[in-house]
Design goal:
Keywords: Membrane, Transmembrane, Transmembrane helix. The protein has 379 residues and is mostly helical. 74% of the residues lie in helices and 2% in strands. The relative contact order is 0.11.
Length: 379
């Protein structure tokens, strides 16, 4: 028993050390080196090292294109089949005939689905730095449908121009016929497609970690250290977005089946989470709540009346648009709020692009560090 315990202790010591240049190195020194490498990568950002960041970003793009080209070259049959299918679809789309009415209907639905799925993907990619399209697009869309539903007493908006523009139907509806469920049903497609997009956006870290594990590569301790640090600080109610990416990394590394991971993510994001968000937005922008919010703003001492007037003008402008009276002129409040929203979208898009450039530059820097470490070990 004593001998077995001694052997276990020796194996444990060996596992906690890394052989380097024929000698054993203290794990603390290796952790310190990884920490310095991580700090060095984090300094590679556009506002600190613009030239190096742009250079590494360009080189990382070339590396990714080379990897994709190699993968496509080894899957020639799939590529040829996809090109043939694409050629058939293009011919069907371009050739005139009675089928064009179905083609146009399918095209409209496909573009609608692709639009919201694309926004969902943009919202979840980028290790927590994605473009938050719910606040910029889906949330305002649900709010607009909610306000229009209570104003028109109907959700049967004319198509077209819906969903590009919302106007009240010509037929009169009985007041009070709008319910929470009717508004949820009206925006269900957009919300579910957006949720599906967010689930798809969680797949890249899962596949990368899974491929690294299957290739026999050692797990990246830095990602797991960051994961543990987030778990230690995840005491607040709101879990940080990078936690979901690291959850994908963890599931990929431990070879969790794809449909188990994606199915759970899809149910959580496209069904459970989206219905909670929809109900929250619909209740927040219901007619009575909006009136109480405007009254509350006006009751704020000092600046209340000056803030209340633009919101009232904006709501009145929306009512005019819903009843085909947008040609009467645009109030100043709408210009102010629209200008603020446009600038917010521009800022968020710029930040998203900058985060992509920084992330890809840091990824290339990590490649360099890993190559240098491998060369040092082989000396």
């Amino acid at each position: 028993m004593a001998e077995n315990g001694k052997n276990c202790d020796q194996r444990r010591v060996a596992m906690n050390k890394e052989q380097y240049n024929g000698n054993f190195t203290d794990p603390s020194s290796m952790n310190e080196k990884k920490r310095r490498d991580r700090e060095e990568r984090q300094n590679i950002v556009l506002w600190r090292q613009p030239l190096i960041t742009l250079q590494y970003f360009s080189l990382e793009i070339l590396v990714i294109l080379k990897e994709w080209t190699s993968k496509l070259w080894h899957r020639q049959s799939i590529v040829v089949s996809f090109l043939l299918l694409l050629a058939v679809l293009i011919a069907t789309y371009c050739v005139e005939g009675a089928h064009q009415q179905y083609v146009q209907r399918i095209e409209k639905q496909f573009l609608l689905y692709a639009y919201w799925i694309g926004l969902g993907i943009l919202s979840s990619v980028g290790l927590g730095t994605g473009l938050h399209t719910f606040l910029l697009y889906l949330g305002p869309h649900i709010a607009s449908v909610t306000l229009a539903a209570y104003e028109c007493n109907s959700v049967n908006f004319p198509e077209p121009p819906y969903p590009d523009q919302i106007i009240c139907p010509d037929e009169e509806s009985i007041e009070g016929t709008i319910s929470l469920w009717s508004i949820i049903s009206k925006v269900r497609i957009e919300a579910c497609m957006w949720g599906i997009g967010t689930a798809i956006g969680e797949l890249p870290p899962y596949f990368m970690a899974r491929a690294a594990r299957l290739s026999g590569a050692e797990p990246d301790d830095e990602e797991y250290q960051e994961f543990e640090e987030m778990l230690e600080h995840a005491e607040t109610a709101q879990i940080p977005n990078p936690l979901f990416d690291l959850a994908g990394i963890t599931c990929g590394h431990f070879l969790v089946p794809f449909w188990t991971f994606f199915g759970a993510t899809l149910i959580g994001k496209a069904i459970i989470k989206m219905h909670i968000q929809k109900i929250f937005v619909i209740i927040t922008f219901s007619k009575h709540i909006v009136e109480q919010m405007v009254a509350f703003i006006g009751a704020v001492p000092g600046i209340g009346p000056s803030l209340q007037k633009p919101f009232q003008e904006y709501l009145e402008a929306q009512r005019q648009k819903l009843h085909h009276r947008s040609e009467m002129g645009t109030p100043q409040g709408e210009n102010w709020l629209s200008w603020m929203f446009e600038k917010l979208v521009v800022v968020m898009v710029c930040y998203f692009i900058l985060s992509i450039i920084n992330s890809m530059a840091q990824s290339y820097a990590k490649r360099i560090q890993q190559r240098l470490n491998s060369e040092e070990k082989t000396k």
